[in-house]
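#onboarding

Welcome to the new folks! Below is a worked example of what a typical request in this channel looks like: someone posts a single protein sequence, and someone else replies with the predicted structure as tokens. Don't worry about understanding the tokens yet, we'll cover that in week two.

Example request:
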Amino acid sequence: MSVVFVAASQLPTPFAVFTMHGFLDEETGKEHVALTLGKVDDGQPVLGRLHSECLTGDALFSQRCDCGAQLEAALRAIALEGRGVLLYLRQEGRGIGLLNKIRAYELQDAGADTVEANERLGFAADMRDYSICLPMLDHLGISSLKLMTNNPRKVNAMEAFGIKVAERKPLQAGHNAYNSKYLATKAGKLGHLLGARHQAELE
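Example response:
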């Protein structure tokens, strides 16, 4: 695997002082980060999240998605637990990149949902590759997760790579009037476990 550890430092945040571990994917040139809190290499299940980069949601406060709210909720949960890990993966727009995500947004503005927009641009609905998580977790000594996610694909991916998912913890945050169709599409077309309300909105 081409993902290698580069360096680690302290990262004070409003939630806790995390340790930030930097990784480089030598094959793609992409840089990924893991934030850890407490002792995570003791073999016990670690509260964790696999968070894909979302510049618009994480940094620009977009209400079109729930990404920024999920990121904050996950960091708060780890801080409250006093122990955990968050992998920040540079896979913008479910893997299609920032500019293509803006192109997809343009199609969504004209009525397409998130899956239809990606497909019209020639992409699969979700292009993310979770195999990059394995060398990061291996480096950190993590073999079991209490995974904060609504996405069964993440659970299946971790277990396929030999990472035990001891528990799936729902992470629902940031629902608003602008992202109701987005969340309904995640529930109805991508299988995210968001409850019957979002499934009904798609029908």
